[in-house]
Specification:
The protein is an alpha/beta fold. It contains 13 helices and 31 strands. It comes from Algisphaera agarilytica.
């Protein structure tokens, strides 16, 4: 790989890490089971930012009475009074409830309690209609927060569609409630961004993309006009239902590109996205007892880091990404199912586990310790292997190169491009495994290494301290350009065209991003032509080969020389040797280099 510390990497205009967007925890400062000591540990020792709250609104819903004048609606006067009390309580603890921490939280609730249907008796007033639910949600946001500390993001439901039959509703009704809720929230608190549908089962390629048509596309068609963002949950393993998926790598970005592509076709803009849960779900409930659970933490940490490295390539598209790491998670003790915790066998998703009368940290804290202190301006890196993901940050006198290995075997990464740096000290930080347990280590090196070896699913960070600042001289700006068509069926020998118009002018190359869904055994290397020239299609992509899944769905990146592009309109032609499946989306990433 080659680093270019002299070149700022601008992705859609974003040039910095934005830790508040990425280094987050699925918790809030107001969770009643998080002690003051634990809060300080999260914020100061781990340098984590708060991510998501699915409980506070649900608890308030249950105790909210009906409007005395209309038993099918919430009592707004009660919500005003209760909200004023909640604001006063927070004001008495200013260190815990800092406005900047509160604003970054994503609020959501659960469809089992909030879905507006006649059978809902969770609260005195139901809610028995979408309008009643919307009235509660909007007034909760208005009266339980001030303009300074109100959360910026609101998900109408948490993972609704997989629960629709059990609740007694359907995709259409749930999508309609998103519309009603979003409109009422905008009337009372217009600055709050509303999104959905918080998909649990993002197997969009299932049944030759009928899953996409019936769920994500249907949601976007019904509710998309009123959504500020689209939210998805992405897990390695199986989340709720579907086939086992190692999503880390090409599958993640294929899903994101498909949503972007349809968003652009429908609205002329790719609306922002949010990954409000991600990680790994291990279905077998064996080896959960301490200390055997350490062997479960190794792949979980690998998924957290691997997925994060992919999301970091999309800062202009991402409002927030939240690893599914709970704080104390006291609610998991005593429940049944895969989230169940006992003192002997805690849930895989806890930052703090119960130990007698106390709580101690789990190995998941190593995710935050690995990223601790890493910040700054993005600088350019190029890698010859898509399985090695890299990011470079310059923060004053501290430069950091972060690497993650998505391959199925250990890789040695040769390093080049550091010659211009006046280096004072080099530290190698690793997140690895030893004796089937996660291990974070740091080692001071005698200068820059020629190469770094990285194990399967493991990460390394090269921390480089300089004697003097190193200013960038150039900027590479990455712009995504979307085609006007998507989801094209593949026929043997039949050309498929994608046209890209209005490319940004300037010098530089491009990358054609092809999200392809095909059954195993069919070709993933089409003949790709542009302006009469045939491009070389890679035989590798980020992450694994998705073996064992009924359909491969992943992103293949095809390098495109800049001199083959026409800024006004460029047409790419794809031809496959066999039939079946679809090219779900085509996105052209155009890189333009300018002097700073």
């Amino acid at each position: 790989m080659t680093v270019s510390p002299d070149t700022v990497r601008s992705i859609g205009g974003i040039t910095t890490l934005e830790r508040e967007k990425y280094i987050t925890i699925h918790a809030t400062p107001g969770e009643p089971d998080i002690t003051e000591e634990q809060r300080i540990y999260i914020e100061e020792e781990l340098e984590a930012h708060y991510g998501r709250d699915g409980g506070v609104q649900s608890g308030q819903l249950q105790v909210t009475p009906a409007d005395p004048a209309n038993p099918r609606m919430p009592d707004v006067a009660f919500l005003k009074e209760a909200g004023a009390s909640a604001i006063a309580e927070r004001a008495a603890m200013p260190e815990r409830y800092r406005p900047e921490s509160m604003r970054e939280v994503v609020l959501c609730t659960h469809p089992e309690w909030m879905m507006g249907i006649e059978s809902n008796d969770y609260a005195e007033f139901g809610p028995k209609s979408a309008e009643a639910a919307a009235e509660f949600c909007a007034n909760f946001l208005k009266y339980f927060y001030t303009d300074e500390d109100r959360p910026k993001y609101y998900e109408v439901f948490n993972e609704p569609f997989v629960k629709s039959k059990k609740i007694g509703t359907n995709v259409e009704e749930m999508s309609h409630q998103h519309v009603v809720t979003a409109r009422r929230i905008k009337e009372l608190t217009p600055d709050v961004l509303v999104g959905g549908y918080s998909a649990a089962w993002a197997e969009v390629e299932a049944r030759n993309f009928e899953h996409w048509n019936n769920w994500q596309k249907a949601f976007m068609d019904i509710a998309g006009d009123d959504m500020d963002f689209f939210a998805t949950h992405l897990y390695d393993g199986v989340n709720v239902k579907g086939t086992h998926a190692e999503r880390t790598g090409s599958n993640i970005v294929a899903i994101m590109d498909l949503i972007d592509a349809y968003s652009y076709i429908k609205w002329g803009v790719a609306k922002p996205q949010m990954i409000s849960e991600y990680g790994r779900i291990i279905k077998p409930q064996t080896d959960k007892e301490w200390p055997n659970r350490l062997k479960r933490e190794v792949p979980v940490l690998g998924s957290f880091n691997g997925m994060l490295m992919m999301y970091l390539d999309h800062p202009d598209r991402m409002l927030k990404t939240v690893p599914y790491i709970l704080g104390v998670g006291s609610w998991t003790y005593g429940i049944e199912g895969g989230m169940r915790s006992t003192e002997e066998a805690p849930s895989d998703f806890l930052l703090f586990r119960r130990s007698g009368d106390n709580y101690v940290t789990t190995g998941l804290e190593l995710f935050y310790r690995f990223w601790k202190g890493i910040d700054g301006e993005r600088r350019l890196t190029t890698v010859s292997d898509p399985d090695i993901r890299s990011h470079y940050f310059a923060d004053g006198l501290r430069h950091t190169l972060v690497l993650h290995n998505m391959d199925t075997e250990e890789r040695a990464v040769a390093l080049d491009g550091f010659d211009g740096l006046d280096i004072a000290k080099v530290t190698l930080r690793r997140l690895t495994a030893e004796n089937e347990a996660p291990l974070l280590s740091e080692q001071t090196l005698f200068g820059l290494p020629d190469e770094i070896s990285i194990g399967v699913g493991q990460a390394a960070a090269l921390l480089i301290d300089l004697r003097s600042p190193y200013e960038a001289e150039r900027v590479q700006t990455e712009t995504r350009v979307y085609a006007s068509e998507y989801l094209k069926a593949i026929e043997a020998g039949q050309p498929i065209e994608f046209v890209f118009e209005g490319l940004p002018a300037g010098e530089g190359d491009a990358v054609l991003r092809l999200a392809i869904g095909r059954v195993p055994g069919l070709s993933l290397q089409p003949k790709v032509e542009v302006n009469g020239q045939t491009l070389e299609v890679p035989v590798d992509w980020s992450g694994g080969d998705q073996a064992g899944r009924p359909t491969f769905f992943g992103l293949i990146e095809v390098p495109v020389p800049g001199d083959l592009l026409d800024d006004a309109a460029t047409t790419f032609t794809l031809t496959f040797p066999d039939a079946g499946g679809k090219v779900a989306s085509a996105v052209l990433r155009v890189d333009r280099v300018t002097t700073k």
